[in-house]
Amino acid sequence: MSSPATQSVLKPATATADSLFEIGAVLTIGASLIFVLVMVLLALALRRRPPETKPFNAGLWIIGGGVVFPVLVLSALMVYASVRTSQLTTRPDPRDGLVISVTAKLWWWEVRYRDPTSGRDILLANEIRIPQGRPLTLALSSADVIHSFWVPELAGKVDMVPGRLHHLHLEARKPGVHRGQCAEYCGEQHALMALHVVVLPADEFDSWLAAQARPAQTPKDEPAQRGRATFLQARCNACHTIRGVSEESTLGPDLTHVGSRLFIGAGTLPTHRGTLGGWIADTQGIKPGARMPSFDQLDGPSLNALAAYLDQLK
Q1: C or N terminus of the chain, fewer CB within 10 Å?
Q2: 166-179 mean pLDDT
Q3: How far is residue 295's CA from residue 305's CA, in Å, rounded to a whole number?
Q4: Quick check: 118 and 249 in contact, CB under 8 A?
Q5: Given its phi and psi angles, is residue 188 left (phi above 0), alpha (psi -120 to 50 degrees) or beta?
Q6: Is 26 exposed, middle or buried (0-12, 13-18, 19+ CB in 10 A)?
Q7: pLDDT tens figures, 71-100
Q8: Distance between CA atoms of residues 123 and 109, nearest Å
Q9: Residue 111: which region, alpha, beta or left (left: phi > 0; alpha: psi -120 to 50)?
Q10: Residue 181 bridge partners (DSSP)
Q11: Do 211 and 170 form a contact (C-beta atoms < 8 A)?
Q12: pLDDT: which is higher, 51 or 154
């Protein structure tokens, strides 16, 4: 599954994004009308007229074109925007819909689902998968500083304030991948704090969620088996959980099915064996200030084995 390279408010994929696009288009058209009128008046004022031309009433033009017209247009735009925004914020919450918890951290996103079978939490990082055509709620919070959740093709910005829980209601129309990011400056690696929302057909989403609830698969080949041992020997489990292997810590992202994610490092690198090895060896070179140290002390065979093990965690 490929990911778009950019994010755009011009390609809405939900009813909420449609409304925001409409509001933006109407405001842009209204402002353009005022701009065009002002430029026309300026051109008329600068135009060279013959001496015998009867002078026009400058005061009338200034009052009519420079005051009355802008006031009428801007007032109409203000009323329109207020009404449409009120309609957006007063929509009823979806009942019995899927709830996905998203917690912003420095500088990554923890995503939490509830397994409908066991009731246990399923943790992911930097990627939200949602079903097509089903109403759902994102429960947004922050673990440290103020962040802002923004996936422009799905909805507007929502601030994530420590100690508060904010809700965002979505219903995606069609399958696809939508890039989002933190839209509130939050520190050194704010620019490398992206996430992706993957919309799946409803039946495919159900199968995916059931697979995510399972523990990590046991490696079958020798390099991956050695990588599993390296994961424990290097004490990667002091920060990362792999269900079925070690569940001691949730300080860093859950890696149980990390190989199935589109990106690592909060959208920094595409996920494959090479980038996994590069990230482990030079985390601070790729994302300075991240709370994961660079493990450049690992020898080449151990690093390759660890990358092979993580890559097959799908």
Answers
A1: N
A2: 91
A3: 14
A4: no
A5: alpha
A6: middle
A7: 888 888 888 888 877 766 556 666 667 899
A8: 10
A9: beta
A10: 150, 194
A11: no
A12: 154
How far is residue 121's CA from residue 93's CA, in Å, rounded to a whole number?
Answer: 23
- CB contact at 8 A, 168 and 207: no
Is-contact 302 230, C-beta < 8 A? yes
- Stated pTM of the model: 0.82
Name the DSSP class of 294: P
Residue entry with tokens 């009433």? 57
Instruction: Report helix, strand or coil for 58.
Output: helix
Asked if the model's pLDDT at residue 246 lies above 80, the reply is: yes
Count, residues in the chain? 314
Query: Using the 8-state DSSP alphabet, how is residue 298 labeled?
Result: S
Taking phi over 0 as left and psi of -120 to 50 as alpha, with beta for the rest, 113 belongs to beta
Cα(149)–Cα(164) distance, integer angstroms: 14
Which of the four pLDDT bands, split at 50, 70 and 90, describes residue 19? confident
Tokens of 73: 């247009």
**Which tokens go with 152?**
């422009």
Distance CA 80, CA 140 (A): 29
Q: What is the Cα–Cα distance from 160 to 163, expressed in whole angstroms?
A: 9
Q: What is the spatial order of strands in the sheet that 121-125 belongs to?
A: 121-125, 108-114, 98-105, 136-142, 166-170
Question: What are 188-241's pLDDT values in tens digits?
Answer: 999 999 999 999 999 999 999 999 999 998 888 898 899 999 999 999 988 999
